[in-house]
Amino acid sequence: VREAFYIDPTVIFLNNGSFGATPRCVLEASWEWQRELEKQPVNLLVRRAEQLLVDSKQPLATLLGCLATELAWIQNVTFGVNQVAHSLDLGPGDKVLLNNHEYGAVSRTFRYLSLQKGFELCEAALPQDLSNPQQVIDTLVAATDSSTKVWVVSHVTSASALLFPIQEIMQAARRFPGLKVLVDGAHAAGQVPIDLDQLKPDFYVGTLHKWLFCPKGTSFLYVAPQHQASIKPLVIGWNYEPHYATKESQWIYTVQMLGTRDISNFLAVPAALEFSARNPRNLCVNAISSFRKRLGTNFPEAGYSCPLQMVSLKLPSSCNEQELHQWLWSRHKIEVPVHRIGPQAYLRPSFQIYNRQEELESLSQALCTYFGLDLM
Ligand SMILES: Cc1ncc(COP(=O)(O)O)c(C=O)c1O
Hints:
By secondary structure, this protein is of the alpha/beta class. The chain has helices at about 15-20, 25-40, 40-65, 75-85, 105-115, 135-140, 165-175, 195-200, 250-255, 265, 270-280, 280-295, 320-330, 355-370, and strands at about 10-15, 70-75, 95-100, 120-125, 150-155, 180-185, 205, 220-225, 315, 335, 340, 345. The model has no long low-confidence stretch (mean pLDDT about 95).
């Protein structure tokens, strides 16, 4: 399977989670659209683009259990979170609740806006020894009061690689009238099933390039029907005061019409979804799970175990994580990310279909050498 990707065969690449990897056949599909564009740019970008973007969204809508009219194409999750955050009607006296496992770019967006708009940003700290998904719900509920207007919550967290109980979080949120939930699904699509019709989030932002084999820069924004009219342009141009009738509804036009851009990656999404369907990933989940068991108590995992293609291991408090990261790369050519949440550093290996079990074995051996441990 490795040959289906461009990943350097001399590298032990255990970091699919950061940017994903795109198979050659999907890149070919994207390049084919680029060639088509170059033949007659006006024909593709002016006459055909709108319908092509509607058509390529349809298989994604089916996968996510929603309508294509509830999805806009966006480049990345940072953009989608900004799009929602800037559209929310928030001001002094309002609170937005995040938690300390949320992604840095997302918390920064809300920190910036809280200073601009005057709302209060609260960051709930999840228990250090998180062992049960219910603790996530309890923490969010305990930090909520009548001025809390928005919860921002990951479906799968980044540094700690935890699958949050998103359906139950939505149910808990519904107990607070007027509370909106923005779900950061950057790591969810491709790793866990998503059914937006059942979940009914207010806003859901997800990425297709991490775990669904799509080219970089393919992400989606879901906006529930009752909030679509509130979406304001983040980048202003033709999307403000549209000058011709669009096939798309106004909110999608507002989000997608950002001036001249290359749409070939969005048009290659159906090819990536077909590739994904042909390549089930249960073996990857098993590989990560046995890796986690094998390292045992030497490196406790970040929280309750979840069937994902990545895992987060707690590093000893004495560890200089930047030094470890550099050592793994320079000595062993192992690419694996290290992250930090407050005082706790984490190592977060991923396993994708192009990886081999021996690569996790090499990581285990290297970690044991570095920390002077015996492997069980
Ligand atoms: C949980 C989470 N949210 C948001 C992002 C931001 O994604 P992007 O850099 O594609 O905007 C990431 C990126 O890794 C992430 O892990």
